[in-house]
Amino acid sequence: MLPTAGHTPDKAKPPEYLLEIVHFLCTTRFEDLPAPVIDRCKRLIADTFGVVTAGNQTEELKALAAGYLKDARPGPSWVIGTPHRAAVRDAGFLNGVASTFHDFDEGNTVASAHPGSQMVPAAIAAAQAFGVSGRDFMLAVVMAYEACARVSMASKMRVSVPQHGNVGVIGSAVAAAHMMRFDQDRMRHTINAAAMMAMTANRQAMLDEATTRNVFSGHCALAGLIAMQMIEAGFTGQRDGIGYTYSTVIADGFDPARMVAGLGTDWLMTKGYFKLHPTGRFSHAAIDAFQAALATVPAGSIKAADIERIDVRAFQLASLLSGRKITTSFGAKFSIPFALATILVHGRSGVDCFDIEAVRNPEIQALTAKVHVVEEPAYTSQYPEKHLCDVAIRLDDGRTIEGHCEIMKGEVENPHRPEDVEKKFFDLTLPVWGADRAEKLYAGLLSLESVPDMRTFGKDFAL
Fold first, then answer.
1. Claim to verify: residue 138 and residue 263 sit in the same structural domain
2. What gap in Å lies between CA 125 and CA 231, rounded to an integer?
3. Per-residue model confidence as pLDDT tens digits over 109-155
4. CATH number of the domain encompassing residue 110
5. What is the CATH number of the domain that holds 314?
């Protein structure tokens, strides 16, 4: 509903929560960041680097880059994992699209968003274009993460709205504006302008296996960078772009007090998760429960041919990933039945376990057809505090093997082992750079605070 004339706010007075957030964004120094936040920031950037690299190796991204850059002007920003350098908006867009192609990107259950993939691609491109230091780049990433994650956390997002394509526009804009050293007034206008540019995307695109869904994070980078440049040119944003967009357009409510609660002390960046399975996040509850069941069996595995049926009971968002007629690699990433089947057959869950060859594997398809997923309303009522899921594997000999998930692996309450997250990076980057250069790249990403100029970062990694 549009606001009536009788309820029109004072347009000359910005909302207090927005003044508070821009003050925080513009006055926080790198020295103010706690050590765990700095460490998490570096690991987020490294994880995103690996995920984008893998995405840019696919035939679709190679073709998109070739066509998109054909008539584009050159620039200093890296299309990660490729020989291409491009202008800031072009590199940000392409890396954004690549960041979700394998659905391997970082996310945040507390915020119900994927801040990393929606914002880091633009931040990397801007850092290289603007020539800022590693410290300034990292500070911008932390500030952008807090800004966009808090918008999502404070919004009552509709189930039909996906976790990509919306708040990331704000994150991308804040990252670029921060590196451009915008003052508080221009930062406020940047945020308001970016909030207007959120996509009215839909979750059904994912369930329909539409790979154009990957444009959502690319849009965040492109629109966010455009928002910053428009404010730099003298354009203005509306009075409260966040409040209007996230209370009437793509969400059913926005709580300003929640957005700024704990600002500067409760860092949402430290509450994110990294994925060890290239699948939709909600399927991880079923994967964890499945692996817990397999752990009770000698040797930790069973033969697919010995399984009569697998039953999965989960919260609503997980139960939506129940498809069994999988014909594409993209669809495989959003199907709990396929995920359980391919992990059992392969004994692992790498990117190739969800590629088209895996989809065509008759053993995987046969087992996929035996998996039945249903919602357990009692579990839905406890989400997101808990990610409850039960898996029961019924064998031909009459035995039933059961597993349970309480909190998905990767969350703060159930963290991954650091070596497992590191292994993911090398699994994704070794095929592109080889062992020696991949190790140097990883070391460089984990010591970004010592980089004097991001334009020179990566010279040793040219392809």
1. yes
2. 19
3. 999 899 999 999 999 999 999 999 999 999 999 999 999 999 999 99
4. 1.10.4100.10
5. 3.30.1330.120
Residues 86 and 207 in one domain: yes
What contacts 24+ positions apart, CB below 8 Å, involve 450-456?
Answer: 450/134, 451/133, 451/134, 451/137, 452/133, 452/134, 453/131, 453/132, 453/133, 454/127, 454/128, 454/130, 454/131, 454/132, 454/133, 454/134, 454/137, 455/76, 455/128, 455/129, 455/131
Q: Which helix (DSSP H) or strand (DSSP E) does residue 374 occupy?
A: strand 371-375
Question: Who contacts 349 (Cβ-Cβ below 8 Å, separation ≥6)?
Answer: 276, 277, 278, 279, 287, 339, 342, 343
Contacting residues for 372 by C-beta, under 8 A, at least 6 apart = 309, 310, 311, 312, 322, 337
Q: How many domains does the chain have?
A: 2
Ramachandran region of residue 173, left (φ > 0), alpha (ψ -120 to 50) or beta?
Answer: alpha
Specify the higher pLDDT residue, 201 or 450.
Answer: 450
Please report the pLDDT score of residue 460 as a whole number: 74
What pTM was computed for the model? 0.94
Structural domain containing residue 378: 283-405
Alpha-carbon span 132 to 104, nearest angstrom: 28
What type of residue is 136?
A: D
Residue 420 forms part of a structural domain: no
Q: Is it true that the peptide bond before 3 is cis, omega within 30 degrees of 0?
A: no
